[in-house]
TrEMBL record:
GO terms for cellular component: cytoplasm. It comes from the Bacteria. ATP binds at residues 30-37. This is DNA replication and repair protein RecF. It is found in: Cytoplasm. CDD domains: ABC_RecF (cd03242). It comes from Ligilactobacillus hayakitensis DSM 18933 = JCM 14209. GO terms for biological process: DNA replication; DNA synthesis involved in DNA repair; double-strand break repair; SOS response. The gene is recF. SUPFAM superfamilies: P-loop containing nucleoside triphosphate hydrolases (SSF52540). The keyword DNA-binding applies. Its main location: cytoplasm. GO terms for molecular function: ATP binding; single-stranded DNA binding. Belongs to the RecF family. Keywords: ATP-binding, Cytoplasm, DNA damage, DNA repair, DNA replication, DNA-binding, Nucleotide-binding, SOS response.
């Protein structure tokens, strides 16, 4: 798939722009604070119905206006798909081929994107929450069952934590409702972990190959899922649910004392191992960056395997964070494979030599001009 056209009205510092893109590599050149990342954000928002930079949708509406519009034409194997999101102070409305979608979960997945920004290099060395969010955001695009389980889990987790807090503060004493919430949480928690393991197995397969290419076979990359649930390995969903119920029963008093849920996928993590050593702990900065690069690029093939279509790749000023060898590997991997949007203050000599016929857009204070047009 690729995004052939994008229309913006009152989005961030863009008042009105209609842009046509190359199905290969599109380079967005401009100095800081001119709107390069805003343009990437609009594409991400068109795909995910949410921003990767803020949780407040109103921030994306031009401060002088009350509404904003993002429209795009996506070319897929099945044909052309027209997407539209309207933002206002009252919320957002998403449309597919002019039909409003009653639920955003029915909208997400029409356009698949992978965003790679400098902060994604923290995927390896960052906190566990960074890696959980990575799985939830990326896998949620391609597996509606996972997205549904995750949404339900989060609702029940909030309810259970509130009930535990009320028990802790002795506002209530009845534990019957806690048992109901615990069973529901165990059900969705088991489904989440099971599907995360499936996703990570696929991701590991492609990341291993990419990492071996970058390191010329000197390093072997493996993943390890670290769960608060004990003895979860090689278990079915039903078996995991039983384990959850058993282990919850052992810590109920402790959870009430602390007023929070101590078991579940919201506390889990992923370890990245190079030659069986934890790269988060023992890896150099170069090894950590190479691992992050391999993992992010592996997503391209995982999405292709799931959907039958390559996703769109958004690279937000990543080249400046990579040395020449990693730049070369990144650009060779994506060349002629996926539609790419790459932001940069200027193309390096390495990049110019490696990118075949890029379409170059110059951005200045929310205005876009196309090179050679």
């Amino acid at each position: 798939m690729y995004l052939s056209e994008l229309e913006l009205k009152n989005f961030r510092n863009y008042q009105s722009e209609t842009l046509k893109f190359s199905p290969q590599i599109n380079v967005l050149i401009g100095q800081n604070a001119q709107g390069k990342t805003n343009l990437l954000e609009s594409i991400y928002f068109l795909a995910m119905a949410r921003s990767h930079r803020t949780t407040t949708d109103k921030e994306m509406i031009n401060f002088q206006e009350n509404i904003a519009l993002i429209k795009g034409i996506v070319q897929k194997q099945i044909g052309q798909v027209k997407l539209e999101i309207n933002l206002s102070n009252k919320g957002k409305k998403a449309k597919v081929n002019y039909l409003e979608q009653p639920k955003l979960s029915q909208y997400i997945g029409q356009l698949n994107v992978i965003l790679f920004a400098p902060e994604d290099l923290a995927l390896v060395k960052g906190a566990p929450a960074v890696r959980r969010r990575f799985i939830d955001m990326e896998y949620g695009q391609i597996d509606p069952v996972y997205l549904h389980a995750l949404a339900n889990y989060r609702v029940i987790l909030r309810q259970r934590n509130k009930y535990l807090k009320d028990l802790q503060m002795k506002k209530i004493s009845d534990r019957v409702y806690l048992d109901v919430l615990t069973e529901q949480l165990a059900d969705f928690g088991a489904k989440i972990i099971f599907r995360r393991l499936e996703f990570l197995k696929q991701l590991e397969k492609f990341a291993q190959n990419l990492h071996a290419q970058i390191t010329q076979g000197k390093e072997h990359l493996t993943f390890e899922y670290v769960s608060s649930l004990k003895n979860f390995e090689n278990k079915s969903v039903d078996e995991m649910k039983k384990l959850f119920m058993q282990q919850f029963s052992q810590i109920t008093n402790k959870e009430i004392f602390q007023g929070t849920t101590l078991l579940g996928p919201h506390r889990d993590d992923v370890r990245f191992l190079l030659n069986d050593k934890n790269v988060q702990v023992y890896g150099s900065q170069g090894q950590q960056r190479t691992t992050a690069l391999s993992v992010k690029l592996a997503e391209i093939d995982v999405m292709k395997e799931h959907t039958g279509e390559y996703p769109i790749l958004l690279l937000d000023d990543v080249l400046s964070e990579l040395d020449g060898a990693r730049q070369t590997h990144l650009l060779k991997t994506i060349q002629d494979k996926v539609q790419t949007f790459l932001t940069t203050p200027g193309l390096s000599d390495v990049a110019r030599q490696l990118i075949n016929e890029p379409k170059i857009f110059h951005i200045d204070t929310g205005k876009v001009t196309v090179e050679d047009e």
